[in-house]
TrEMBL record:
GO terms for cellular component: cytoplasm. This is Histidine phosphatase family protein. One of its GO terms (molecular function) is phosphatase activity. It comes from Streptomyces montanus. The lineage of its organism: Bacteria, Bacillati, Actinomycetota, Actinomycetes, Kitasatosporales.
Length: 224
């Protein structure tokens, strides 16, 4: 058996969310038609890969994204609660570029410490659970490849940790576009490289691409 194992961590596809709610961990948010196309595109991209394990966050949008990949490889879809979206006190509300949320006094108490962050699950807690999920996927697919479907912030935080960057950051600069793959290559039990690809880039609205400038009314922090 090879001592090289590859773990692809995929962000789910676009979600149907016409009201622009920061949905976080709320149930009932499913992929849009475009999101399903994104999921199919990535499944096609991974069709020739040696994928032997597919696992997702328990949230609907993640499971729906992972399903075509598992089906194409003839695998059962597993779930791992450690892959879930980061907790956020603004869940269920609108909170994004240009909506005035930062000027509302009731929100100020949650914005005092961006380094932790004070409005949600601490970055270090996200690192611990995501590293645990990646290690479990690596063990399940040892010598082959695994796909884990998760959410933007936890993916970016675990990548930042592995690449030894600070964990606090400007959310607009995360390199983790919808349906993207952040790929961790293990030699034995050690991560030796990190890669990033966007197989569905042409399907992603321009203002939602990695590093794109926020657009008023179109860039709410929906939960990802």
């Amino acid at each position: 058996m090879s001592d090289i194992t590859v773990v692809h961590v995929m962000r789910h596809g676009e979600v149907a969310n016409p009201d622009g709610i920061l949905y976080g961990r709320l149930p009932g948010y499913h992929l849009s038609e475009l999101g399903r196309r994104m999921a199919d595109r990535v499944a096609e991209h991974l069709a020739s890969r040696d994928v032997t394990h597919v696992v997702s966050s328990p949230l609907e949008r993640a499971r729906e994204t992972a399903a075509p990949i598992a089906e194409l490889h003839g695998l059962d879809l597993a779930t791992d609660p450690r892959l879930i979206e980061a907790d956020n006190v603004f869940q269920g509300k609108t909170f994004g570029v240009g909506d005035g949320a930062l000027r509302r006094p009731e929100n100020w108490k949650h914005l005092v410490n961006p380094f932790k962050p004070s409005w949600g699950e601490p970055y270090l807690e996200q690192v611990v659970r995501m590293m645990g999920a990646l290690d479990a996927a690596k063990d399940a697919a040892r010598g082959h490849e695994a796909v884990c479907v998760s959410h933007q912030l936890p993916i970016w935080i675990v990548r930042s940790f592995v690449e030894r960057r600070r964990l606090w950051h400007d959310p607009r600069k995360r390199q983790c576009t919808l349906a993207s793959l952040t790929t961790f290559t293990y030699q034995g039990d050690k991560i030796v490289s990190v890669g990033y690809t966007e197989p569905a880039r042409d399907l992603v609205p321009v203002h939602l691409l990695a590093g794109a400038k926020g657009v008023k009314g179109k860039d709410k922090a929906f939960g990802a």
